[in-house]
């Protein structure tokens, strides 16, 4: 069977038509992973037993002729920052090398309840901190479109597996662009829902006011299908929104004609690669021909988004990562004579360089004497960045920008320069800070054949419009 | 240079990190270059701008749009099942079967 091109939609159809059993399909995916993943390194852990048990449950439903759940038999990979009961969950860190969660992340539980087959756990930057997947303690992921290049990050494994066809879809997490930027680099669709749309319960915390779970898929329609399954209120996450979840798949049928699309000049300035600019401008022209009104807009505080992000995200990370102390779970260094020495040695040996750098930066920004200058200042600028969007959305229904300033860069190219790595997220971080939804959809490619991503941003809880606009860009 | 070697040592101490001499040197360079970049926030006058700690505060318009509260951060004060004792211990590096075990806490 040619599983390379399988989408959620086509998988549903082959399962319901009984062309394949869910068990055979899962086994074929494991064969493909075994043959092709060593070169890409998208998977950190496989959970074949759990997958085949779930496939059996799906096959029993098919055989009984009962109505099929929406993801019946669909093989899905989970970024290794989401807890999976009984399946090792590392967050790409040595400090959690042997961590076996005693519970499931809500998003994962909802996927399985909808019939999905969880194949395994996807490689990522350590604690989702990075833009290239080079910060994984288990080694980098290679971009399936050009193996000398990074897949983006931090959900690099999630994007690479969808691009390589070793999963039909995956879940990723986005704190500053970690779903959309790798989707752009690997030529797949990556959706960050509104903050609060998808429960964060069971997501290993990086920066709690910025962390989002979302799907990476081959098509916009698949993203709509997955979002519908994982979205909705969860009593286990006090920030999850108690709002009805629309039928995103059905909403895709509505035409984009008449929508007002904003194009912010700040996203097309210095630093944007010419080929990326040309591709995104072509995508905007396509929307114009589809009947959208294109409106030039300004998001005047955009230049301050990266510095704001690196204060807030690192401050929250320094607090969240204080829990790794070698006591209740995770790595404990050997030979420490006192409790305090044990804490220090365990954290020193368990965390990688970028994680330590961010803990240091965040601790500094929160420390006495600097709190007002850095943390409080960044929180005030976060208000300004959010107001920029609020004002823009009075005028327009969606905003279109590049997802990243360049196509995928070479492995090693930025790994010694944290600041230049941080700038890879320049067009994605602002949406995380404001909590609005955003999607990256492939549109065009560079002269050397690398994929380019176009980003669509929308109003809070208006993923429907974001998906519709992305689908209009994607349509051949 | 905003950050000195002494600051790096102090912050590492707050963060429960030891750091090798080489790591401290690298941190000194990196923190100074990142903080220098972050310093551009001071170009903005934010004296009348409220700080934003959570997205929900930024969603004020939605909460007031007639749809009511969108997040229910409070639940009824009713006990629910929590993680069983043995499961809570199963990932611990060292236990005595009943409690987490750590090196001695009081230093002399």
Keywords for this entry:
heterodimer; A: 476 residues; alpha/beta; eleven-stranded mixed β-sheet; 16 helices; 11 strands; 13% strand; globular; B: 108 residues; mainly alpha; 5 helices; 38% helix
Describe, in plain words, how this protein is organized in 3D.
The complex is a heterodimer of chains A (476) and B (108). Chain A is built from 16 helices and eleven strands. By secondary structure, chain A is an alpha/beta fold. The mean pLDDT of chain A is 96. In chain A, strands 1-3-2-4-6-5-10-11-9-7-8 form an eleven-stranded mixed sheet, sandwiched between helices. Chain B is an all-alpha fold. Chain B contains five helices and no strands. The longest helix of chain B has 18 residues, at 21-38. The chains are: A alpha/beta (476), B mainly alpha (108). At the A-B interface, α10, α11, α12, α13 and α14 of A face α1, α2 and α3 of B.
Topology:
The complex is a heterodimer of chains A (476) and B (108).
Chain A: H1 8-16, H2 22-40, E1 43-46, H3 48-64, E2 75-79, H4 106-113, E3 117-122, H5 156-164, E4 169-174, H6 180-186, E5 189-192, E6 212-217, H7 220-230, H8 248-251, E7 260-264, H9 274-289, E8 293-297, H10 305-320, H11 339-350, H12 353-366, H13 371-395, E9 398-402, H14 418-422, H15 429-434, E10 438-445, E11 451-458, H16 463-474
Parallel strand pairs in A: 2-3, 2-4, 7-8, 7-9
Antiparallel strand pairs in A: 1-3, 4-6, 5-6, 5-10, 9-11, 10-11
Chain B: H1 5-14, H2 21-38, H3 55-58, H4 60-63, H5 85-89
């Amino acid at each position: 069977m040619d599983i390379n091109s399988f989408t959620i939609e086509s998988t549903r159809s082959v399962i319901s038509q009984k062309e394949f059993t869910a068990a055979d399909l899962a086994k074929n995916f494991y064969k493909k992973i075994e043959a092709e993943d060593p070169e890409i390194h998208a998977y950190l852990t496989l959970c074949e037993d759990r997958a085949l048990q779930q496939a059996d449950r799906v096959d029993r439903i098919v055989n009984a002729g009962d109505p099929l759940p929406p993801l019946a038999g669909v093989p899905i990979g989970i970024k290794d920052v989401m807890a999976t009961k009984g399946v090792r969950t590392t967050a790409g860190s040595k400090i959690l090398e042997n961590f076996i969660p005693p519970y499931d992340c809500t998003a994962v539980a909802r996927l399985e309840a909808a019939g999905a087959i969880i194949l395994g756990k996807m490689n990522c930057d350590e604690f989702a901190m990075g833009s290239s997947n080079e910060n994984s303690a288990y080694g980098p992921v290679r971009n399936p479109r050009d193996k000398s290049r990074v897949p983006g990050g931090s959900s690099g494994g999630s994007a690479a597996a969808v691009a390589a066809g070793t999963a039909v879809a995956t879940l990723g997490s986005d704190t500053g662009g970690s779903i959309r930027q790798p989707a752009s680099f690997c030529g797949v669709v990556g959706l960050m829902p509104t903050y609060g749309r998808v429960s964060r319960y069971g997501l290993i915390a990086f920066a709690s006011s910025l962390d989002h779970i979302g799907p990476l898929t081959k098509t916009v329609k698949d993203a709509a299908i997955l979002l519908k399954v994982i979205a909705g209120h969860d009593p286990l996450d006090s920030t999850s929104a108690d709002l009805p979840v629309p039928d995103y798949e059905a909403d895709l049928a509505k035409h984009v004609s008449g929508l007002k699309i904003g194009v912010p000049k700040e996203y097309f300035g210095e630093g944007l690669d010419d080929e990326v600019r040309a591709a995104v401008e072509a995508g905007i022209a396509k929307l114009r021909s589809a009947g959208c009104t294109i409106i030039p807009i300004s998001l005047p505080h955009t230049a301050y988004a990266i510095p704001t992000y690196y204060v807030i995200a690192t401050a929250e990370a320094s607090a969240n990562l204080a829990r790794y102390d070698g006591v209740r779970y995770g790595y404990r260094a050997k030979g420490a004579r006192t409790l305090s020495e044990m804490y220090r040695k365990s954290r020193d040996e368990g965390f990688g360089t970028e994680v330590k750098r961010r803990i240091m930066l965040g601790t500094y920004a929160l420390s006495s004497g600097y709190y007002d200058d850095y943390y409080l200042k960044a929180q005030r600028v976060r208000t300004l960045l959010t107001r920029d969007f609020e004002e823009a959305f009075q005028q327009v229904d969606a905003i279109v920008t590049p997802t990243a300033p360049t196509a995928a860069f070479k492995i090693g190219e930025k790994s010694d320069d944290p600041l230049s790595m941080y700038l890879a997220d320049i067009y994605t971080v602002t949406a995380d800070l404001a909590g609005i939804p955003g999607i990256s959809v492939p549109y065009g490619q560079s002269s050397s054949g690398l994929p380019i991503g176009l980003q669509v941003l929308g109003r809070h809880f208006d993923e429907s419009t974001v998906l519709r606009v992305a689908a209009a860009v994607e349509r051949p | 240079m905003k950050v000195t070697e002494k600051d790096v040592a102090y912050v590492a101490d707050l963060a429960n990190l030891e750091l090798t001499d080489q790591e401290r040197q690298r941190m000194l360079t990196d923190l100074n270059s990142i903080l220098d970049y972050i310093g551009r926030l001071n170009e903005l006058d934010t004296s009348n701008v409220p700080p934003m700690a959570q997205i929900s505060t930024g969603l004020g318009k939605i909460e007031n749009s007639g749809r009511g509260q969108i997040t229910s951060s409070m639940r009824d004060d009713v006990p629910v099942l929590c993680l069983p004792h043995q499961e809570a211990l199963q990932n611990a590096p060292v236990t005595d079967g009943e409690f987490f075990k750590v090196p001695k806490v009081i230093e002399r």
